[in-house]
Amino acid sequence: MRLLGIISIALSLTFAVQNACAATDPLRFIQMSDTHIHVAGDPRAVAHDGRTDNCLDPTITPYYLRFFPELAAQYCGRNDGSSLPTIAMTSAVSLANTLNPEFVVFTGDNVSQKLYDGFKAVSLRRFESLADGLNSDYRVVAAELHDGVGSADNAALFEQTFGDLNWDFVRDNNLFVGLSQSVRGAAFGTSSYNIPYLQALLEQYKNRGMGLFIFLHELPNNTVMDNEDDGDFIALLEMYQYEFDARVVMAGHVHANLYEYSNGTHWIVTTAVMNYPTEFRIVDIHEDRIEIYMSDGISAEVEDASMVMIDYYIENELLSRAHPPNTLEGLTGDASERSITIPLPSDEPPTVVRVPVLSSWRVPLLVGVLIGLTLRVMRRAESGAV
Description:
This protein has 386 residues and is α/β, with parallel strands linked by helices. The chain has two domains: 2-19 and 361-385; 29-46 and 81-299 and 322-343, Purple Acid Phosphatase, chain A, domain 2. Helix content is 35%, strand content 16%. It is built from eleven helices and twelve strands. It has helices at 2-23, 69-75, 84-99, 120-131, 152-162, 195-205, 231-239, 300-315, 328-332, 335-338, 362-385, and strands at residues 27-32, 103-107, 137-141, 167-171, 174-178, 211-215, 246-251, 258-262, 265-269, 281-285, 289-294, 339-343. It has a six-stranded mixed β-sheet. It has a six-stranded mixed β-sheet with strand order 4-5-6-7-9-8. Strand 2 (103-107), helix 4 (120-131) and strand 3 (137-141) form a beta-alpha-beta unit. Helix 3 runs parallel beside helix 4 (120-131). The longest helix is centred in the C-terminal third of the chain and has 24 residues, at 362-385. The protein starts with a helix and ends with a helix. The model is unreliable at 223-227, 320-324 and 352-370 (pLDDT under 50).
């Protein structure tokens, strides 16, 4: 009977620990940015950051893959399309599938054609076929230039492929909002984003103890890019600074890892999938914190090709003209930009200290320790009784 009691206690402890672990499993999602799938046409890009979607003739500018003959021979197609972004995105999808996210968000420059390129539809279909390889749901926001939604025809094409340009959903008491770019001044005054749409959502969900995650292509306040501040967007978030437990805005565009905390909002920029460093962001939302950190490298092959160009730029002092980082660390980001822990509710700047999660292998170890302690207490009780 005593043995049965011990076994019963052990099983109860095992179930209790497993249930506690299940209750603390985080909501995980992934942000990928700037995949630049390039079938053909002019990407209208400056390649100082080692981007791999360019295959034009070097007589136009030296900053293209054809300026590096070995790379051009291996990766440039007859229509000046580069296969490297496809290689990178394929690897990114495979890596993401091993991490079991609830969903993946792509934050713009998904393809690499200019506004009115006849290959736009072909590139969007290529991107869609690659994204469909994900085991999870995915959402897409569009950029004005490369995705082409500055054109009404291309905006309609994008919506036919991926659904609404602006979208929202709620998961585990978190509000997720995706906002595609528009031509500034054309629809929303000084903002590139649909401010009325966002404000209606913030008003609807305020003061519910929710987390707020907004996905854009281009941050409204990234002075490193020398962009004009999007004052309407910033002012709107400041109005709702205390109505959400955390306010996180995630974007791309810069092809580098950047982070800034200001006015109660965490502003995060994530590197491009298709050039060094080939990475994406992983976000784990726990009950008491949000952890945001970088993936492993996506593709050594793509990074090697990207570094061939970057090494050339460094050797010739051209990297200082990159858009915007001027060092390799500027591309990869420092520790505070690569690993961020935001406490919940978030009223203070985050730390960069990772909090360990109770791993599955620790469960049997913990149960064993608890059984040992139970036996020790029972022995002492018996000896006391004697």
